[in-house]
Input
Amino acid sequence: MGIVAGLDSSPDFTRIVVCDADTGAVLRQGYAPHPLETAEGGGRPSDVDPQAWLLSLGEAAGGGLLEGVQAIGVSAQQNALVPLDGQGNTVRPALVGADKRAQVAAADLIDRLGSREAWAEAVGCVPQAAQPVTKLRWLARTEPENAQRVAFLMQAHDWLVWQLLGRPTRRTTDRGGASGTGYWSAAAGSWRPDLVELALGQRAALPEVLGPGDAAGTTPEGLIISAGTGETMAAAFGLGVSPGDAVVSLGASGSVMAVHHEALVDSSGSITSLADATGMHLPVVHTLNAVRTLRGTAEMLGLDGGLDELSDLAMKSTPGAHGLVLLPYLEGEKTPNLPHTAGTLSGLRRESMKPEHLARAAFEGMVCGLADALDVLRGRGVEVRRVFLLGAAAELHAVQAVAPMLFGTQVVVPQPADYAAIGAARQAAWAMSGRLPMWQGAATQVFEPGEEQPVGQAVRQQFRSVREQIHPGAFAQP
Output
């Protein structure tokens, strides 16, 4: 069929993979960091000049990497708001990431529409600091002159696609990226310009939302550019997840998402209703505590070997950690909604007060917290037959031991790869051929719950009992 490329513009770097369009085999790869920028006081900046993304892209594509490529797909960081004026120039640097400056604006938006439930009904999510709709409100409140100049709204992948096509009159996005803005309804499949006006104080033009296999356009050289999408949707597409699959991401915080046939409206705001890159939906539930629970425990135990040593220590204990239960709500918690709580260590007895039992309780507590999030989706009719486990911590022996029994399903750990870039390349192949490419899925390790599933259920029940004792009704419906 030919050769396609997928590029992933993350917050820190650009990765490019060049793939065989028939099989998905990776033929060549490119990488370049984004120009170094830091926020005041260090850390990742909240304001970024989009030209930095183009510079990184050009460097990553150097050395003839794209020679022979017939189509390109673009994946990019989500929640990056690129406000443009009437001439297509950026009004100000792009607002990226989980911008803490916008936290007050999020509360303001909830009040202006009336309630969290009203937002969930309107667009499938409740405003948070990271979302473009909230950043628009922040812009209107703190930079009113810039806000008045805004004529058109884009996200990172929209803007990159537009640049690759030579800034045509037609500007596009995809349903996956649109679903994370806070002003597009995954359930209705349409923009909510009234919510843009609510946030910004005026109307602004929005991109045309393309279908999953549509092309955004063709460059003068004849190169097809597909619709593009957000990193989460591209990674799911690159992994090859399908109905019955859930993806659990282990970062400092955690997330659980699953492929589902319809958008889920959740009045509590626990579920964020996103769209995927194939025409399906990706309901997502977030937790605030995942690997930070493990790191905190390793520090508490004084382990110089970090998480690997903690994992080895945990494997010296047994399921249930001799009755020791850690509720891992170290930073408060989002699922269940306990923003002002703290973690709890319960079940201290003389026989349980050993380092290996605390280590085991940390792993079980982290995974039980994520299993609670998975149950939120299951409780809404989402089928889960298999769980993909992502993140460096997924390679830990203790995680692989406890996850299948606590999730109660098959767990697969994909081989590390640039799945967002691969997903973007797969989308490019779809736009080029007009049919969904059936690429081989990710290479994985597979772990079954087997005979230990009843043991896992007992550990879950032990965790639930402590959670209900300390935080009664935490999962009660509003």
Remarks:
- The chain has a mean pLDDT of 94.
- The CA atoms of residues 184 and 190 lie 6 Å apart.
